[in-house]
Specification:
13 helices, mainly alpha, 313 residues, 0% strand
């Protein structure tokens, strides 16, 4: 039987497994923060956050969908907290659901702003500015090929498009991290916990099943509609989110909690570094699964719906 960190005191944290496991978590997080800094320097367009890839689907439907998903996520969190208390936030599942709720909250606000606020007026003004620039180009250049004019106009339009602010950046970060976290949560629950631990001490209720399924379902529905990109660099947000959860677990166990919500977090076993290494490595296929889904979206949907789906990249 393992000794708890609270009962054993400081001796629990000076064993050799602690710095090894700490490095296994810290090194990927350090690289993740480096990628995050680089990715934040790239401009993010506001129109990518609230528009859709479907010609005849109004962005209003995406707004309503995000608002509905946010309400459902908050309701699920409320019900599980009311049933088990705030203690449930020791588990990664509730962290994931909270992150999904944050994404849909930010998405609802950004979609509302993009649909009703000055971005559309700015876009119409941008079109006028582009037309003026086109006239100037025609006056100053005698012979210009038609395709060259189109390229210049597209560049001008992109230059005038409104950039996404901090809110839009946080929304993109939450989306990329929540995608990987949802896959990790649901795969571990349905493929490991349910088949091997289901019994008298572990039962799947409607609430537990919903909170381990609707997180991914809501995100997949949003992915099918939205225009958000899913870059490889987004993996850094997923890694940082996982590292933050581990830091949280270590902190609360060093201060007041004498048990681990997941047995693979236990540091007193000689197998702890292998468990933590496996925990770090499993992030790769989980993010990769969602990346493949997004890739399939841009390869299959244009073929299935050639006149309805707009493939921009």
């Amino acid at each position: 039987m393992f000794e708890s960190p609270v009962e054993e005191g400081w001796r629990y944290w000076v064993r050799w497994q602690v710095p090894v496991c700490g490095l296994i978590i810290a090194i990927p997080c350090a690289f993740a923060l480096k990628f995050i800094r680089k990715s934040m320097a790239k401009p993010l367009l506001l129109s990518d956050l609230w528009s859709t890839h479907w010609r005849h689907l109004s962005p209003l439907w995406l707004l309503l969908y995000r608002a509905f998903a946010f309400v459902c996520c908050v309701q699920l969190l409320y019900e599980i907290v009311a049933l088990h208390g705030p203690f449930v936030f020791f588990f990664y599942t509730q962290w994931t659901m909270a992150l999904v709720a944050i994404y849909f909250a930010l998405g609802t606000v950004v979609s509302a702003y993009g649909y009703w606020c000055p971005s559309r007026k700015t876009h119409s003004k941008n079109e006028e500015d582009v037309k003026l620039m086109e006239k100037d180009l025609k006056k100053n250049v005698d012979i210009v090929k038609e395709d060259t004019i189109k390229v210049q106009n597209e560049c001008a339009q992109q230059e005038f498009q409104e950039k996404a602010g901090c809110l839009g950046t946080l929304m993109q970060m939450a989306y990329l991290a929540a995608a990987g976290a949802s896959v990790l949560t649901d795969v571990v629950f349905w493929c490991l916990l349910v088949p091997f631990l289901l019994g008298e001490n572990f039962q799947v209720s409607l609430l537990i099943g919903s909170i381990h399924a609707l997180n991914a379902v809501f995100l997949l529905g949003d992915t099918a509609i939205n225009s958000l990109s899913f870059p490889f660099s987004g993996f850094a947000y997923f890694v940082a989110f996982g590292g933050l959860y581990v830091v949280f677990q270590w902190t609360v166990h060093a201060c007041c909690v004498n048990w681990w919500p997941y047995p693979f977090f236990e540091l007193s076993t000689p197998w702890a570094p292998l468990w933590y290494l496996g925990l770090a490595v499993i992030h790769i296929p989980c993010y990769g699964i969602y990346a493949l889904i997004v890739k399939a979206k841009y390869s299959l949907l244009p073929r299935l719906f050639p006149h309805a789906f707009v493939k921009t990249f």
